[in-house]
Every structure is written in structure tokens, then in C-alpha cells.
Amino acid sequence: MSKAEYEKINLNENIPAFIWYIDNESYNIDYYSYISPHWHRSMELTLVTEGEINGRINGTPISVKKNEFVFVNSGDVHEFEKDKGKISSGVILIMSYDFIKNVYPNFDNVRLDIKKVGLKKDRLIEIFLDIKEYFLNPKELDYLKINSYLYEILYILFSNCISEEVTIQDERFKYRERQKEILTYINENYKEGLSLDYMAKKFYMSKEYFSRKFHQWFGVTYKVYLSNYRLNKAYENIIKTDENIKDISAIHGFSNVKSFINIFKEKYGMTPSKYRKYIKELKNDIKEDKK
């Protein structure tokens, strides 16, 4: 059985964290409207600065609005989706697991609840808005200030937001490990057939039980999840390359190009070829606006 592997996070230079500011323009060009379920050992904290962010964390639906935080504990399975036609933006901070573990050795055994931050919430918002400015207008020594912010954020979280201690005997832990194993296997083999029958047998479940648990854990059927995952992988080829649509379809595991085109059109409102043209025109318009 495939070992559950975490998503590896590329850190910013001189900073033990990944930092990004996403606005509506970024979503259109560089980001998918749907980010499929995934997990990583790092801790993820996002301040919503405009609109709202919807998604699921460990199967639980979330909807987070302006000046609120999306918080993802280490190891949590999470997914996000941006509603079509709605403006949203946010400051994303994903802190290195090794950095946190070094600062707080008991990190693996606690869960944090951002709702418990209380009066320190305003300070967190202030920090994140500063980080946004550093990201948009970087200067040579900014990394020193940002690193000081990382320590302050951890101090606030570990002083105010510890909700419980967890152990590997915890039933929820066992379920999360199974979820990660399934996601890891799909991530590594999504180009193959991966029928429902095959996956159920692979993970020693009946087809009915696998189907039911998958929907319970991830909020969609296995078929829809696999289709969305393949679509997300193909999306990058559509907007960043001139590869033939039929070839992209085959590379990413779709049964035929017609099926791929129909699924893409249902998600993005136009065929892959038209969408590629739309993105190129959008990029050109943005370049012209910045001149």
C-alpha cells in the first residue's frame, strides 16, 4: 500500500515559510478555481482580505469571510474553491514544519483552534497586512522583519489557541491517516484507470463502503474527485503550454478527448482551446494596464 506522503512546500528565500498574496487577478491566471484535497506537515494560516473563501477541512465545510482566518493544522486534509464571478483575496502563510517543531517541540501532539485567539485577533490581522505589503513591495532586509513576525505569530497561537492534545490512538487520527494514504495513491497514479472497484480492493474495503466513506471524508463522490483532480492537473498545461488538447487529455488520464472537453467546459464555461485563448488575452490586457 502506498505510504501517505505530504505535499512539499517551497519556502521563500531566507524565511522558513511560504508567503503569498492572492487577489482576483491571480486566481484568473495562476490559480485554479478549485484546489483539490491535499495535506502537508506545515501549518497554514490565511487572512481573507476580500470576499470569502469556501472549502473543507477534514471533510467539514467552511466559509470564511473578510478579516477572518482560515486555519489548517499540520496534517489536516483540506481543499478550497473560489466561486465563479466573485472577488476574493487573501494573504497565505504556510510555516515550515521543521521550523515550528524546533521552536515548539510538542507541536505534533497539539491541535490549534484559531477561534480561541480572542483579543489577539486584531494583532494577527495587523501582522498579516504588514506581510502583504512586504510581499507586494519587497525590500532587501524585509526577511528580518518577517522572521520576527513568524515568532510572534507562533507565540500568539501557542499561548491562546491550543484546543486539545492528540495521540496516535485517537480514532480521528487513524481516519486521517487512511484519508492521506488514499489521496497519496491517487496523486501518484491518477493517470491510470483507478476504477472504484480497483480502489476499494486496493484499500481492503467493499465498493459500497469505500464509496460511502470517500463521500463522507471529502464531500464529493470518488468519481467526481478523480475527475476534478485530473482536470486541475490538465489546467496548468492548458494555460502555460501550447500542447495539443488531445495529448493533454491522454497525459492526465481522461478516457477520451471528448470527455475531457465536456468536463472542462462544465467547470470553466468554455472549451479548453477557447479558455487558453481567453487567458492569453487576459494576460496581455494586464500587461498593457501596467505600462
Automatic annotation (TrEMBL):
The keyword DNA-binding applies. It comes from the Bacteria. Residues 180-278 form the HTH araC/xylS-type domain. Keywords: DNA-binding, Transcription, Transcription regulation. GO terms for molecular function: DNA-binding transcription factor activity; sequence-specific DNA binding. The keyword Transcription applies. InterPro entries: AraC-bd, Homeodomain-like_sf, HTH-like, HTH_AraC, RmlC-like_jellyroll, Tscrpt_reg_AraC-type_HTH. PROSITE patterns: HTH_ARAC_FAMILY_2. This is HTH araC/xylS-type domain-containing protein.
